[in-house]
Amino acid sequence: MTMQNRSFISPSDVIALEIECAACRMRMTYLASSEGELPKVCPSCSKELFPRDGNWTAVKELKTALEDVVRRKLNNIRLEVTTPLS
User: Is residue 85 part of a domain?
Assistant: First the structure.
């Protein structure tokens, strides 16, 4: 018999998004439920956080989609996540 552990979260379980600057490694945390705009540049070193075309837009759309799913109370959706080894 094979056993497999799988972990799922609801979109409402996501409380924040963490963005790490590739240049200076500064980490910024933004509440998933906040209305604020995500930055395009690092507040520490002023480098672009998402230098490839479309990446910033994709991250912004992810945040907006999470907010929308939670607001609509779509509780029948789960996201599978990797489980760190203990």
Answer: no
Asked if residue 41 belongs to a domain, the reply is: yes
* Tally of structural domains, the chain: 1
User: What is the residue-level pLDDT of the chain in tens, covering all 86 positions?
Assistant: 787 788 899 998 989 999 999 999 999 998 887 777 889 999 999 999 998 889 999 998 998 898 899 889 988 999 999 876 55
CA separation, residue 61 to residues 8, 32, 58, 73 (Å): 22, 12, 5, 18
Whether 84 is in a domain gets the answer no
* Residue 1 is assigned to a structural domain of this protein: no
Cβ atoms of 30 and 14 within 8 Å: the answer is no
Q: Residue 39 has which token pair?
A: 């930055």
